[in-house]
Structure formats: structure tokens, C-alpha cells
Design goal:
Blueprint: H1 2-24, H2 33-39, H3 42-45, H4 47-57, H5 64-67, H6 70-97, H7 102-123, H8 125-130, H9 132-158, E1 175-176, H10 182-194, H11 196-199, H12 213-218, H13 235-241, H14 260-271, H15 288-297, E2 301-302, H16 316-322, E3 327-331, E4 339-343, H17 351-355, E5 364-368, H18 376-382, E6 390-392, H19 400-403, E7 414-416, H20 424-430, E8 438-440, H21 448-457, E9 462-464, E10 481-482, E11 487-489, E12 493-495, E13 497-498, E14 505-509, E15 521-522, E16 527-529, E17 533-540, E18 550-556, E19 563-566, E20 598-600, E21 605-626, E22 637-643, E23 650-655, E24 667-688, E25 706-713
Length: 714
């Protein structure tokens, strides 16, 4: 027995020495992979020492007869051993993940203290036992350290103040609209609710804190969390946009996820230069960040006086009946009888749909008819809404004649007429309404000289022409868009391009070049195609900067593929519908890698496509997903082989794509492999992912991914 005790004591002492060594030199250590696995067992193993340590201190409060039972020796020995092993695992885990923060430091100190004090308690137990006061004091100290260590460990895992959070009865936070700041009142609450468990306050997993501007701009061990004005280089957005199944996705899959609205809010904040101290009211009225932020703050905005309306709430059943996919009715506040109404889908709109609102006309305060085919006759019905305050008629068909019908609306204080045919005469008729406070007039016949004239007799009205710069100020046009669904087509098809503004020239190319003032075809009517094209287009208008380049892919369906054979399997996370996903005529989505594509990382992709019978073929197109920031690179090698019997193969084409030299926006990319006409029933495709990411990439040295979403044989 004595020999056994000596061996155990030596092992325990060695464990304490190793623990102290790891703690002192943790900043200088590199943890091998097999030890990283041991470190990650810390959350699993930590429950053993808690129970055993509590059991080991019980004899301190019992009689000597019970205390002398040999069973307690084994419990004390096991408690010290598991406490030391758990503390070592915890240090290995923190070294591997490069976590930082005051909270983690306290957790480390108390965890190591538990191991050392429990070792002293075990080693000098006989001496402690001689005096009850010492015995019980140490046992109380161990118990308190266990509680503190567990409390800080829970905060690291579940967020700060996890244990005592139910006791905090905080009153709902209210925000004053005039003083609301973009970061403090909008962005920070999103970080706090969805990222705070791991990256705020004293908790800094991966060395990243999202608590303030300095920490956010500094980033963590994997690089900058945000790049001002650049979503593609912002690691924060990249991780949020990864598939939920990806281990790099943030927040972790078992944590509350950001809503699409919250993600969009963060993206627009970064694109706007990530302002931290700016007030919301200091941004332009129609600024996207301002609009989304106020929508986010709506439940928290404080008002000096709650609005009291003279009308009762509309019947809830009637509101539910009127709500559909093309007409949305929403209350303007919690328990408010006031409603906002928005119409969507130009083809689904009619004057009858507007007339159906008559039962709730008293409750409608905000009415959004933007881009609907509203005519002057319908303005008479709108004028009958007795409490209407805000009216959006952007890009409708109204004229000067109809505006006079709105001049008698007593409550109307805001009207938006962007992109309409109204002129100076129409605004003069409208201004007979002395309740108006703001009028939006972008892209109309109204000019600055007209505004100056209006202001002389309408000093209380704010007129907005869309910009307040000098006459030389140029704004960029919105991006043009494609009305025709992109992707695959089987027969001859037509493509329609459009823009939200009128009298805009759209130029396009189909040869891979970017259209400009000298290059490209002017879009006049439908584009008719009967083969695959890569369409690029821009919008141009005198007095405006050109729009951003837009792209659309139209792919002619090829020879039907009866069967796909995977010689090498795709990664288990990215192999959904593996036998059909490459031939289902559905391009992969760069925002969701997991559902419509096959992903390869550890081995080459080797696939065989069976055409069902021998066919004459001359080209194979391979569509890949490329998201450089997410480690998804072009293939380093593509090889195509043909066969009639799956025994004798002939090389048809090889291709070695050029690797990118910087992070570029994510996109679908189609590789075209042409070869002399040949007869084949089977087509074999070999694709090689990049083995090591280049030195300029944040994941340098790690293996990259190859994602393929479609293979078409012609």
C-alpha cells in the first residue's frame, strides 16, 4: 500500500509540474494535433473532478471514525488526478484556440488553483486532519474555488453572467430617435444577442472581441473581422454566410443564429464604412443603413408623448383577409390601431385591390404604392383616406392633373413622387395642401430652380431632389436587372433587361468583356438566344455615373445524362443528392454550398457520366463555385476522357486553370472544354482541388476546396 501511495504521489506531483509549465509558457507553445483532441475533451471531463472534489471534502465535517475509512483516500486521489488532468486539458484547449480575455484568465487561475490546492490537501491530509479548523477551512476554500471556476466556465460557454441572469429584472431599453447612434444602439445589440457568448466583454474566443471599435477593427487570430467598405474581405460576414454544417460557420450551429434582416443590417453597415459614433439622423433620409436601423429600433424608440388616435382598431379578421403575398398590412406600433399598407407585384395590382382597403381606410396612415400602375383616377380614392400621413407614389403613372386631388388631404405630411411624370405645374397644385412637410422629387422634371421658387412661399416644406451637392455632383445609377429567369433553358428563349429609372440606356456584351461608352450593344428590345451566353450589362444616363456591372448566365441544356457514377465520393458535408446534383439543370448557389453542389477537399473528384447510348460529342461545360474568401478555389487541373465501353478511355481535353492572386467576389464560373467531335457513351471527369492555399490567403498552407454544381455535355 505504501509503495502504491508513493507511485501515485509521484504521478500527481508530475501532473502539477506539467500544469504549471503549460501555464507559464502557454504563449510560446504549439500544440500538436493529437494533443488538440485531448484539449477538446475538457468540457466532457470537467464534471468528474467537481463531483469527486465535493465528495473528498465531506469527511472534514464527519467523525474521525468515518474519516479514517480507506475509501476516502481513493476518492481524494481520484479527485486530485481528475482535477489536474482537467486543468491541463483546459490549458491545451485555450492554447489551440488562441482564446483571450479577462474572463478566461480568471477561469484559468481558479482552475489551476483548484488543482494545486486539492493536491496540497491530498499530500498533507494527515497534517490538516490534526486540526479541524485547518481541515474545514481548506475544504471551504476548495468548494468556493469550484463554484467560481464553474461560474466563469459557464460564462465562457453560455455568455457573461449566465448563472445570475434570471435574477436581473432589467426594464426594457428605450432609445431616443434624435440621439440614437449606429453602433451603440443598432449594431452592438445584434453583436450582443448573437455573438456576445463568445466575443464580448471578458470572453474573446479566437482572440476576437466585438465590444468596441478598437477590438473589432483589430480582429482575431484569423485576421480582420471587418474590412471597411469591403464585404468580400470581412471575415465576420464570410463566417456568417457559410453553410450551417460548416465547422467555421458563426455563430456555432447550436447557438441562436442571425436573422436574414440582422445579417443584411451588418452587411450594409460594413459597406457604409462601419460608422461607430455617427448618429442615425445625421445620415441621408433615404440612406439604406438609416432606413434599416430605424426599422430595427422601432420597438425600442421612445417618444415624448404616446400618440392617441381618434379611431378604433380595424377588425382583425378583416386585416387578415386583406393580407396576402401582394398586399401587406402592418400595425405602426404595438397595440396601435394605425396601419401601414404596401403593395407588391405590378401584375397583381388593380384599382379594385386598392378599393378593397375602404373598410380600413380610417386606420391607414402609411400607403406605399411604389412601382404600381396607379393612375390619376385612383388618387380620388386615396384622397378619401381621412388619416393618411405618408404616401409613396414612386414610379407610378400619375400626372400633374391628379395631384390637385390630394391638395385637400388634411393629414398628409409626406409624399414621394420619385420617377413620375409630374412637373412644376403639378407641384404647385399639390402645395395648396398646407399640411405637407416633405416632398421627394428624384428623377422628375423638377429642377433646383423650381425648388428655390417653391421654398419662397412654402418655407416649412422640405423638398428632396436626391442630392445636395453642387451642379457637378454625379451619382451612380442603380444596377440594371434581368427580368428573365437565369440559368438553364432548353429551347430558343428571349432575355429582357430593365432598370428602375426611365430613359436609361442599357448596354450589354456576350463575349466576356465589360460594356462601356465605346464597347457593347445598346439594348432596345428582347435579346433572342439559342445557345449559352455569359451576359454582362451596365446602365448609362446623361448626368449620372454608370451603374455597377451586372452579370447573368444563360445555359443551353445539353445531351441528357442518364446516370452519374462517383468513383471518388464528395465530402460528407457536401454530397447531397450526389448522383443527380451535377445533372439536374440547377446551378449551385454561392450563398449555400451544401445543397446544390459537390465539394471535394481531401481527394480529386473522379466522376463518370453515362449518356445511355453512344453519342457524338464535342464539348463539356463544367460549372464551379468560386468563393476565395471561403477557401473555395478554382480547380488546379481538369481532365476529360471518353469511352464507348468504360474499358478503353481516350483523353479528350485537359485544362489547368490559373489560380487567383487575391480575394475576389464569389461567383459561379463555367469552364468550357472543347475537343474534336468524337463518339462516346461514357464521359469521365477528373478535377483536382488546390492542395495548399497560397501565402497571401488567410488560410495559407491549408487545403482548399473544389465545388462543382453542374456538368453539361454537348
Amino acid at each position: 500500500m505504501e509503495r502504491f501511495k508513493k507511485v501515485v504521489s509521484a504521478i500527481l506531483f508530475g501532473g502539477i509540474v506539467l500544469l504549471v509549465f503549460l501555464f507559464v509558457f502557454e504563449d510560446k507553445l504549439q500544440i500538436p494535433i493529437w494533443l488538440q483532441v485531448a484539449g477538446r475533451m475538457h468540457p466532457l471531463f470537467l464534471h468528474f473532478p467537481i463531483v469527486l472534489l465535493i465528495l473528498s471534502i465531506i469527511p472534514s465535517w464527519l467523525s474521525d471514525e468515518i474519516n479514517n475509512n480507506v475509501l476516502w483516500f481513493y476518492i481524494r486521489m481520484s479527485a486530485v488526478l481528475t482535477a489536474t488532468v482537467t486543468a491541463i486539458m483546459g490549458l491545451l484547449l485555450s492554447i489551440e484556440q488562441s482564446d483571450k480575455g479577462e474572463l478566461l484568465s480568471w477561469h484559468k487561475w481558479t482552475g489551476i488553483s483548484v488543482a494545486i490546492i486539492s493536491w496540497l490537501f491530498y499530500t498533507y491530509y494527515d497534517q490538516f486532519k490534526l486540526k479541524k479548523i485547518y481541515h474545514r477551512t481548506v475544504s471551504i476554500g476548495i468548494l468556493l474555488l469550484i463554484i467560481l471556476t464553474g461560474h466563469w466556465g459557464a460564462d465562457l460557454t453560455h455568455g457573461e453572467n449566465f448563472l445570475l441572469e434570471p435574477l436581473h429584472l432589467d426594464q426594457p431599453t428605450t432609445v431616443n430617435a434624435e440621439n440614437a447612434k449606429i453602433f451603440a444602439d443598432v449594431i452592438n445589440p445584434v453583436f450582443k444577442s448573437k455573438c456576445g457568448n463568445c466575443h464580448m466583454g471578458h470572453n474573446q474566443k479566437g482572440g476576437l472581441s466585438l465590444s468596441d471599435s478598437t477590438a473589432i477593427l483589430k480582429g482575431g487570430k484569423n485576421g480582420k473581422s471587418i474590412e471597411l467598405g469591403n464585404l468580400q474581405k470581412s471575415l465576420l460576414i464570410e463566417r456568417m454566410r457559410l453553410p450551417l454544417a460548416d465547422k467555421k460557420h458563426m455563430p456555432l450551429s447550436d447557438k441562436p443564429q442571425l436573422t436574414e434582416f440582422e445579417t443584411k443590417l451588418l452587411e450594409i453597415w460594413i459597406k457604409s464604412g462601419a460608422p461607430f459614433n455617427q448618429k442615425l439622423v445625421d445620415r441621408p433620409v433615404n440612406d439604406s443603413l438609416r432606413i434599416l436601423s430605424f426599422e430595427f429600433l422601432q420597438p425600442f424608440l421612445s417618444t415624448k408623448k404616446e400618440t392617441v388616435y381618434s379611431f378604433a382598431s380595424a377588425d382583425e379578421k378583416k386585416i387578415a383577409e386583406l393580407n396576402n403575398n401582394y398586399r401587406i398590412l402592418k400595425p405602426l406600433g404595438v397595440h396601435s390601431p394605425a396601419l401601414s399598407v404596401s403593395f407588391f407585384g405590378k401584375a397583381m395590382y388593380s384599382s379594385d385591390k386598392l378599393k378593397e382597403l375602404e373598410p380600413v381606410s380610417k386606420q391607414v396612415l402609411h400607403l406605399n404604392l411604389a412601382k404600381m400602375p396607379v393612375t390619376d383616377d385612383q388618387l380620388e380614392l386615396i384622397a378619401s383616406f381621412p388619416h393618411l400621413e405618408r404616401l409613396n407614389l414612386n414610379y407610378t403613372d400619375i400626372t400633374d392633373k391628379g395631384l390637385e386631388r390630394l391638395s385637400g388631404m388634411r393629414q398628409l405630411n409626406s409624399i414621394s413622387l420619385v420617377g413620375t411624370k409630374i412637373s412644376k405645374e403639378g407641384i404647385e397644385k399639390l402645395l395648396k395642401n398646407k399640411n405637407l412637410l416633405e416632398v421627394f422629387l428624384w428623377d422628375t422634371k423638377i429642377v433646383a430652380a423650381d425648388i428655390n421658387q417653391f421654398k419662397q412661399s412654402n418655407k416649412e416644406v422640405q423638398f428632396d431632389l436626391g442630392f445636395t451637392g453642387a451642379d457637378t455632383t454625379l451619382l451612380a445609377l442603380n444596377t440594371a436587372f434581368v427580368k428573365t429567369p437565369t440559368g438553364f433553358f432548353k429551347e430558343k428563349t428571349t432575355i429582357e433587361l430593365a432598370h428602375v429609372l426611365k430613359d436609361v440606356a442599357i448596354k450589354y456584351t456576350t463575349n466576356g468583356t465589360e460594356p462601356d461608352s465605346m464597347n457593347g450593344i445598346l439594348y432596345r428590345t428582347h435579346i433572342v438566344i439559342d445557345s449559352s451566353i455569359n451576359l454582362q450589362f451596365k446602365a448609362f444616363k446623361k448626368g449620372w455615373l454608370p451603374s455597377k456591372l451586372a452579370k447573368a448566365i444563360f445555359i443551353k441544356a445539353g445531351i441528357p445524362i442518364e446516370k452519374t457514377i462517383l468513383i471518388t465520393p464528395a465530402d460528407s458535408k457536401y454530397n447531397a443528392q450526389s448522383e443527380k446534383v451535377l445533372t439536374d439543370l440547377d446551378l449551385g448557389d454561392i450563398g449555400d454550398f451544401s445543397s446544390k453542389s459537390l465539394g471535394y477537399q481531401k481527394n480529386d473528384a473522379v466522376l463518370i457520366f453515362d449518356l445511355g447510348s453512344t453519342k457524338t460529342i464535342q464539348k463539356v461545360n463544367v460549372n464551379t463555385l468560386q468563393s476565395i474568401a471561403s477557401y473555395i478555389f478554382p480547380p488546379t487541373h481538369l481532365e476529360l476522357l471518353g469511352s464507348i465501353d468504360q474499358i478503353h478511355w481516350v483523353t479528350l481535353k485537359t485544362l489547368n486553370p490559373v489560380a487567383p492572386i487575391k480575394i475576389v467576389p464569389a461567383e459561379n464560373f463555367m469552364y468550357e472544354l472543347k475537343f474534336p467531335s468524337t463518339k462516346a457513351r461514357f464521359v469521365k471527369l477528373i478535377g483536382s482541388p488546390i492542395k495548399k492555399l497560397p501565402s497571401w490567403h488567410p488560410g495559407k498552407g491549408q487545403p482548399g476546396w473544389l465545388f462543382m454544381s453542374e456538368v453539361i455535355v454537348y
